[in-house]
Amino acid sequence: MRDTSPHEPGEVFGPRMTLFADMLSVGLATAVAGLPLVTIPAALSTACAVLRGAGEGQPATAGRYFEVLRRRLRAGDLTAGAVALAGTLLFAADLALAAAGLPGAPLFAVVAGVIGAAVLVVGLRACARPESLTDWRTALREAARDSIRDVGGSGLVLLAVTTAVLCAWMLVPLLFLAPGPLALALTAVHIRWTGMSKS
């Protein structure tokens, strides 16, 4: 299927292909910024902010990504990252205990999985909210409300995470590009819900 979108003079690819390339570069920048692990929430939040800005005519480039990240990185971002990392380790420990064959392990594993999925959805939806750039508490509170009121969007978030994990599992180098499509999906879910709630 041909890209019938208008091209600027001298432009080889249309704006959709440019956005795709920008998304991949932002994804790579996000992966690099998230390497210390405690910076993952801030890195993903910044990626969502940069991609959201693309809809407002702002450049979605790796250069702008690092500029925004440098301006916003603060103690609250590192605290959010430390809490997320501790929660992930606790969840992994719970699943390891369930796999060890403790009494009631199957039910415990199901309950832990549901709670873990709910927390993951709220955390990812918080990253997509503009408030996450300055106030994680507000972003998390609003994301929790969005997750309950917009069940379809929460399902889309889980689908996006599953797709990113499967892609990285099948081809490990994609792990460094997966944050871009994930951030784009989170941003799209947020914009979709914002539009629905206003109408």
From TrEMBL:
Chain segments annotated as transmembrane: 20-44, 78-101, 107-127, 148-171
Domain of life from the UniProt record: Bacteria
Keywords per UniProt: Membrane, Transmembrane, Transmembrane helix
UniProt protein name: Uncharacterized protein
Organism: Streptomyces viridochromogenes Tue57
Lineage: Bacteria, Bacillati, Actinomycetota, Actinomycetes, Kitasatosporales
